[in-house]
Design goal:
heterodimer; A: mainly alpha; elongated; B: mainly alpha; 2 strands; 35% helix
């Protein structure tokens, strides 16, 4: 089950509100490659994993991603405080504000609400781990793009931290894939699906 | 920070299987938890391991201001990193021993913070005089002044 530590993994202290920046960063909460999607993907894939190392890895990374979702939400929350009506309209956040005010709603920057359609649980060891590798790269690129669009140092410090986590997760999933393949039929990795054929 | 690892090029290399069957993707296994950053360095870089420190446009974070909370975050982060490493390197004794050391440091740091500042876990409230769990600030809130 889930325990909550009342602290963030890395500090989020955004001195300057900026609704325009919030408009793009929201994608890392509820976008196709955001932290909510990552945590749902990993926490749901772990049930059909046959090997302990993978059950542990998916549980631990999935849990860390929930903490990251909290951090991105904290960025949004702090970027959208004390907005004047003029700022809301000028920033283009008005189309989000009308439905969510200054709440944090899991959506992509495009306005498309978070959807499980952006993630996969295939119930196959190799497919799921390869999906996870791709997911970490896509998340990393999204953070790269945020760094291109943002010049706020308070925001960028957090984004750099979160981006580096994706690099590390990619390495761990790659190692998980190696461990899985070592346990599988070396003459034919695709002979059976260890997640189902046991 | 870069210079101390300049002579140890190996930290950026891992191991691949030999031979490697076709139709499979291979990521090199990280060989060791050494070398590793200090906890505050690790927190600033987003990883404990210089081999995995691959910043965008080679721009890195400044050091964080040292407060009780950032010190706790740094220790907690090293524990998180070691747990992920151990998930794929469960037999690595050196890593496990470093993990034991850091767990003890974290436990002590968490308890000290909870006693002096605020509960971090609901269960920290054992022995407290009141239900302090609801006290501000919550982790996502902006505070202008120094914490703890």
């Amino acid at each position: 089950m889930f325990l909550y530590e009342k602290k963030l993994q890395y500090p989020v202290k955004i001195a300057n509100p900026n609704p325009k920046l919030a408009k793009v960063i929201i994608s890392q909460v509820g976008g196709p490659d955001g932290e909510l999607g990552a945590s749902m993907r990993y926490l749901n894939q772990r049930y059909s994993m046959p090997y302990d190392e993978l059950k542990g890895l998916l549980t631990d990374i999935g849990t860390e991603e929930l903490g990251h979702m909290e951090m991105v939400a904290a960025i949004i929350h702090q970027l959208t405080r004390k907005m004047s009506t003029e700022e809301i309209i000028r920033s283009g956040l008005d189309t989000y504000f009308v439905d969510h005010t200054a709440g944090v709603y899991p959506t992509a920057a495009s306005g498309f609400p978070w959807s499980a359609a952006s993630m996969a649980v295939k119930g196959d060891v190799l497919a799921d781990l390869n999906e996870d590798l791709a997911a970490e790269q896509k998340a990393r690129v999204t953070y790269d793009n945020i760094l291109r669009l943002s010049d706020d140092p308070d925001v960028n410090n957090v984004i750099r931290f979160l981006r580096e986590r994706e690099v590390v997760h990619y390495q761990r999933f790659g190692e998980g894939l190696r461990l899985a393949m070592e346990k599988m039929n070396q003459k034919n990795l695709y002979a059976v699906n260890p997640s189902f054929d046991r | 920070m870069e210079n101390q690892f300049a002579d140890m090029e190996r930290y950026r290399l891992g191991s691949l299987p030999d031979p490697a069957p076709l139709a499979a993707a291979y990521i090199p296994m990280q060989d060791s938890v050494n070398p590793n950053y200090t906890p505050p360095e690790a927190l600033s870089r987003g990883t404990l391991f210089p081999g995995l420190d691959l910043p965008f446009m080679n721009v890195v974070n400044p050091d964080l201001e040292q407060t009780p909370m950032t010190e706790l975050m740094a220790i907690g982060f090293v524990v998180d990193e070691l747990e992920l490493y151990l998930d794929t390197h469960a037999e690595d004794r050196e890593a496990f021993e470093l993990y034991q050391t850091m767990l003890a440091v974290k436990k002590e740091a968490m308890e000290r913070y909870a006693r002096r500042c605020a509960p971090l876990l609901q269960t920290d409230q054992l022995g407290m005089e009141r239900y302090a769990w609801l006290d501000s600030p919550w982790p996502w809130e902006y505070r202008n002044k120094r914490e703890g």
